[in-house]
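Recall that a protein's primary structure is simply its ordered list of amino acids. Everything else, from secondary elements to tertiary packing, is in principle encoded there. The following example makes that idea concrete.
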Amino acid sequence: MLRPRKKYTVYDLQKLKGKRCLTHIHVKSPEEAQAAELAGVDLMSCSFDSQEAQLRLPRIIEAAPSSFISVATPHGLASSEEAIRVAFKALEIGASSVYCSASPNIIEKMANEKIPVVGHLGMIPRHVTWTNYRAIGKTKEEALKLYNQMKDLENAGAYAAEIEVVPHQLASFLSSKTSMILMSLGSGQGCDTQFLFSDDILGDYEERIPRHAKAYRDFLSELNSLQDERINAFKEYIKDVENKKFPSPDNLISMDENLLEESIKEIEFMD
């Protein structure tokens, strides 16, 4: 009998820093979580930023019970108290850690409560009004700013940080200068985890895949084909009903003719 794999802890991840790059996928459904665990993916993340996502988390945890799963808290947390409340709710459900793109001040308050917190460096989608969608850190000024931001997160108590769309040479250097786990999203192979979204891996959306991602399947075509089959099946059903081909004799429930006749006579008498 195979022993179930051990679920990583933050302690485990810190001990693995610099030893190997862990695989890391953001999943959006229990089915994807189960597939990722069965495939042997090291780490997962998922959303926790809407009521729907919060209701889905228990099913994701159940689908991948041996996996380290970090959840993304809502954008725009108004205070450290709110961030702590949301984080504890996620941890109580079964999350292993929480992602938060808030300031180091809020992250520090969360870390003081022993909440495992993941921060964010580089291109932060929730903050793109200040940067636009582009690589961050290609100039000396931005490289120095990234280093200082990394140290701010580290000093605040974050155990990890996503580092998104940063030049791979810089990201690799920064990873060597911090005790945090750096999770590379489009930032090369020199960090501690290689992070991709399931949407990108499975190719299940219409937009152009980002340069830093890779599609290993074409689920969009499969999904479109399934939708075509749904439409065709419904059309065939409509046609059969109109032509009285459905229900056919094989679909009918029959009654003994004598019993039917007796029943009809009695009903008509009662009527």
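DSSP finds ten helices and eight strands in the chain. Strands lie at 22-26, 43-47, 68-72, 97-99, 117-122, 160-164, 181-185, 193-197.
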